[in-house]
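Here is the promised in-class demo. Please do not try to memorize the tokens; focus on the logic of going from shape to residues.
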């Protein structure tokens, strides 16, 4: 089975790298088309047995699974290029934000099996969270193949497409909010005499550990927070200050801004 990637940048490149590294035999199954010669050269350097294609259409013709790792602004041109090479025995996977299954089917054909995903940048370190939805043409076998590819870079969950805008807010964009939180901790630690590098390790490892607790503990988020707060202690002082300054509400506002923009982008594609 040939897995083709159109676009080897941040997200497409992360999934390609994860899949290529997951099994020694996967390297020979990968094909890539990217307009950037530098991207192609760097990817070939890491995976010398992969195939570099000269166009998206060539890649689509020779691949069983085609992963579209291109931005929403250029997706329509890419779809137009590959449409003639798309047949019902191929699986098309798109990660373009704001581009729904209906739009993809309109440009590729009503009979084409299509999966839409929303990954996030931690795919680069094998810790992605990927939302997955599919049209009625995707068989269980094809879906299992796709989920195996995604497993190489993190976790994947199937959702209803109506929740894809929500996913943008809760996982697609949320690494950026988390980086801001860590950055604030680092700056505060520096103001108290700690070096930036040392503060980054302390803050980031604490976030990593807390996230692991959330995933592995049977306790609620509220209880996990309470467990850290001793009466009249340091943590409760910090938590009460954050609550008083609207910390939770501000995070929710940022989340909603990302969701609203995702909805706008989808509507713009329909015009």
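The designed amino acids, position by position:
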């Amino acid at each position: 089975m040939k897995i083709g990637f159109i676009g080897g940048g941040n997200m497409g490149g992360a999934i390609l790298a994860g899949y290529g590294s997951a099994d020694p035999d996967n390297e020979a199954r990968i094909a890539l088309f990217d307009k950037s010669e530098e991207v192609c050269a760097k990817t070939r350097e890491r995976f010398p047995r992969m195939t570099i294609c000269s166009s998206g259409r060539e890649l689509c013709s020779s691949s069983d699974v085609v992963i579209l790792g291109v931005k929403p602004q250029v997706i329509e041109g890419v779809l137009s290029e590959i449409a003639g090479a798309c047949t019902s025995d191929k699986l098309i996977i798109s990660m373009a934000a704001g581009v729904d299954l209906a739009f993809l089917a309109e440009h590729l054909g009503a009979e084409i099996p299509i999966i839409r995903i929303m990954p996030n940048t931690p795919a680069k370190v094998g810790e992605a969270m990927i939302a997955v939805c599919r049209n009625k043409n995707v068989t269980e076998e094809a879906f299992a193949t796709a989920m195996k590819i995604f497993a190489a870079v993190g976790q994947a969950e199937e959702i209803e497409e109506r929740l894809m805008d929500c996913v943008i807010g809760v996982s697609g964009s949320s690494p950026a909010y988390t980086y801001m939180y860590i950055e604030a901790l680092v700056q505060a630690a520096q103001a108290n005499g700690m070096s930036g590098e040392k503060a980054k390790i302390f803050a980031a490892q604490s976030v990593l550990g807390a996230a692991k607790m959330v995933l592995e503990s049977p306790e609620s988020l509220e209880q996990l927070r309470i467990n850290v707060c001793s009466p009249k202690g340091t943590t409760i002082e910090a938590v009460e200050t954050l609550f008083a300054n609207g910390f939770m509400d501000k995070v929710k506002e940022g989340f909603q801004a990302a969701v609203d923009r995702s909805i706008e982008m989808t509507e713009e594609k329909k015009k």
